[in-house]
Each structure stands twice: as C-alpha cells, then as structure tokens.
Fold this sequence. Notes:
By secondary structure, the chain is α/β, with parallel strands linked by helices. It has helices at residues 42-55, 71-88, 103-113, 122-145; strands at 6-10, 15-21, 28-30, 34-35, 60-65, 95-99. The model has no long low-confidence stretch (mean pLDDT 84).
Amino acid sequence: xxxxxxxxxxxxxxxxxxxxxxxxxxxxxxxxxxxxxxxxxxxxxxxxxxxxxxxxxxxxxxxxxxxxxxxxxxxxxxxxxxxxxxxxxxxxxxxxxxxxxxxxxxxxxxxxxxxxxxxxxxxxxxxxxxxxxxxxxxxxxxxxxx
Length: 146
C-alpha cells in the first residue's frame, strides 16, 4: 500500500528534480532542483532531500528509473541503485521506483509548447520531469483502484 504524500525524485548525475504529491495522492507539484556543486556532494544532496521529506511530511519516496533501452540506461540504473541504497541507509521512509523513461522529453515539450526556451528553463526541466512521472504514477494508482 502506498502512503501519501509522495516525494518523486528525477535522478541525474548532477541535478535532482523533486516533486511532491498532496495528502490524497491526487496532484503532483514541482519543487526546486537540488544540484551537486563544489560545495554540495551527494551526501549533502541526500540530506537536503531528507529535509524536504520532513518539511512536507513525506510518507513514500518515488525514484524514477529509465527502461533499459540502451547500454547507458543500464549504467544509469546502477547509479540509481547506489543512490537508493544511500538514502535507505539514512531513512525509514519506504522507497519505490517507477519508469520515467520519457518524462524529461515530456517536460521539454511542455515548456516549449508554453513558449519557454529550453535554455532559459534548463533548471526547471528536472523538477517538471519529476512532476510528470509522479502525476503518471498517481493517475495509474487511481485507475487501478477504480
């Protein structure tokens, strides 16, 4: 059973898009992107994610995983598994994964169709991608329960 609210994470090598659901599991909303920088390593990123979990009273963490279409996706999946294990070592919040194969493309399409340039919205794409796959996940749970 899934408990709400959910925090969705769009994993990236340097940028982590975040989105959260409401308490009923109906609507996904974007949060700021957290990035690895000179002063912020992966452990700092995980700690910031856990602070977000506390602030929004998150009950489940949803991490996007791409399907293995290419060899590069397999390497990404290995990185995501390490990331998941690092988070699990620091929290009791249940972590689940969901296919996010096309969420970044959907996010780019949404931003460009609204007249925004990809260059100017680069920082938003990861959080919009997290919102896209979280909303797809929420919609699939509603469809399955009906």
